[in-house]
Design a protein that fits this description.
With 230 residues, this protein is of the alpha+beta class. The chain has a single domain, classed as Heat-Labile Enterotoxin, Chain A (Alpha-Beta Complex), CATH 3.90.210. The protein has helices at 2-10, 24-30, 102-109, 136-148, 186-200, 213-223, and strands at residues 14-20, 32-33, 42-44, 48-52, 67-70, 85-88, 95-97, 112-118, 125-126, 155-158, 162-163, 167-172, 182-183.
Length: 230
């Protein structure tokens, strides 16, 4: 018990940004956790381009766009319930609405990931202390989160993009359906290396994890950029 207590006391206060392997290569290339509404659509290997319907986003009238974090490592329910997703066929451009069940959202997202940051290392504010918390949009977000089984009082926000080089923890679920995140901090150094590589080499391409090296090299050649193999 003494050792367990010592570990708890020495734990660095940390917040997590939840994402998935569908988007991580875009994060490594941009080098930041972007504020809402600024992230690009992502390309799914079978479904084409995946986007979130604008109707499922807040209007951004009551407070500025923010990047969202939480103190809990479990995948937030709001990421799998009640979301509105659609695919854009990469050949025809046709839009196809996708199922919005938890299982469907997990399958589309592929493997869930959480990036941990020491609170002291990034410009975050507790959501309960942020001006947006008590606005109409904020209260609507809080209500929908509680309805999904989440606690918005555990959230943190940043009004500016967060530098990924400050990442201190990496969590990954090897299981797609009913994800359970496992900590794998050795990958933190790989993340920092990829982010720095992209900063040092403008236009460097980090392939998504579901591409083989040969496929990634071909894509990079077609895009006319250099490939940085993770």
């Amino acid at each position: 018990m003494g050792e367990a207590k010592r570990r708890r006391e020495n734990t660095v206060p940390t917040v997590y940004h939840h994402t998935s392997t569908l988007r991580t290569n875009l994060i490594w290339m941009s080098g930041v956790i972007q504020v809402e509404g600024k992230s690009e659509g992502v390309f799914h290997p079978r479904l084409g381009q995946i986007q979130t319907d604008a109707l499922s986003r807040r209007a951004l009238n009551d407070f500025p766009a923010v990047a969202w974090f939480t103190t809990r490592i479990e995948v937030p329910n709001v990421l799998t319930r009640g979301i509105s997703l659609f695919a854009v066929d990469n050949v025809t451009g046709e839009r196809k609405d996708l199922q919005s069940t938890s299982d469907a959202a997990n399958a589309i997202a592929m493997n869930r990931v959480a990036l941990g940051f020491a609170i002291s290392s990034i410009p975050v504010t507790p959501w309960v202390d942020h001006r947006g918390y008590s606005t109409d949009e904020g209260q609507e977000l809080n209500a929908s989160a509680r309805e999904a089984g989440d606690n918005p009082d555990e959230w943190y926000v940043s009004e500016s993009p967060v530098d990924v080089l400050n990442v201190s923890e990496f969590w990954y679920s090897p299981i797609v359906m009913k994800p359970r995140l496992k900590r794998f901090d050795p990958y933190v150094n790989d993340i920092r290396r990829m982010v720095q590589k992209c900063r040092d080499t403008p236009g460097a391409y980090i392939p998504p994890t579901w591409l083989t090296i040969e496929e990634a090299t071909l894509v990079a050649r077609q895009l006319g950029v250099s490939v940085a193999i993770p």
